[in-house]
Amino acid sequence: MTLITIDRVSRFFNDPKRKSAVKALDDISLKVGRNEFLCLLGPSGCGKSTLLNMIAGFDKPTSGTVSVGGQLVSAPGSDRGFVFQQPTLMPWLTIWENVAFHLTMRGMDKRESRDKAQRFIDMVRLTGFENHFPSELSGGMNQRVGIARALLMNPEVILMDEPFGALDEQTRMEMHGELVRIWRESQSTIVFVTHGIDESLALGTHVAVMSARPGRIRELIEVDLPRPRDPTGPQFNDYKRHILSLLRPEETLGVAA
Ligand SMILES: Nc1ncnc2c1ncn2[C@@H]1O[C@H](COP(=O)(O)OP(=O)(O)O)[C@@H](O)[C@H]1O
Ligand SMILES: [Mg+2]
């Protein structure tokens, strides 16, 4: 069943210095089914964040439409949780207060929001750190707090913009395993932005490969690999080779430009 429909979306940005318009996205159409894990993969500047921001309702298409659950997206909503590249936590709040932030904002009483937060603190395996402050936790742990905060509102979709980009390789791989577990346990739908081919193949049920500016979908690939995925296996490498062949001509153009 389709949950997200992106229909013929283009996005221009004004470039006042050059008195022209930058075409960031060009006629993108894409469907994401419920419970899918879609990775948006492409080189830096191809419009991945722009597209994700439009699903979130942070930005609007110049033309075309985005809908989630049959509703046209016009603003952010609690049906869509967002995990940023940096965890954007409030340093003066404890871990549980950060996780429960949206509930407190809505006026839920402390005890109830504390109880509600606990389930998601447990889910991201931060039990025991409820009363710590963000500065006392590692980067990977803070990113887990960001995920718990997004999950708390029980969103239909979790939107993630290069959430593990700042982590070291080993922590990133650990987070991949955790995220796949969380995705299954929470039965959510995820749209995950990355420029890493390995990362997209470690995570996605689908990978949408985008081309460099103006961003277009080159191919939507269904990843039929057993989990946990073996990045050294022959099938994994077959997918990788295929994705590289899709990205390469664009990379060459990018260097020349
Ligand atoms: N607010 C903005 N104003 C002007 N140009 C923008 C804005 N946001 C993005 N762009 C341009 O749109 C293109 C795509 O950006 P972005 O979506 O951030 O790419 P990605 O996330 O794939 O790296 C880039 O050329 C970028 O400079
Ligand atoms: Mg980006």
From TrEMBL:
Family per similarity comment: Belongs to the ABC transporter superfamily.
Q: What is this protein called?
A: ABC transporter ATP-binding protein
In terms of Pfam families, this protein maps to: ABC_tran (PF00005)
Q: Which UniProt keywords apply?
A: ATP-binding, Cell membrane, Membrane, Nucleotide-binding, Transport
Q: Which Gene3D superfamilies match?
A: P-loop containing nucleotide triphosphate hydrolases
Q: Which residues form the ABC transporter domain?
A: 4-237
User: Per its record, what are the GO molecular function terms?
Assistant: ATP binding
Under InterPro entries, the record lists: AAA+_ATPase, ABC_transporter-like_ATP-bd, ABC_transporter_ATP-bind, P-loop_NTPase
Query: Does the keyword field hold Membrane?
Result: yes
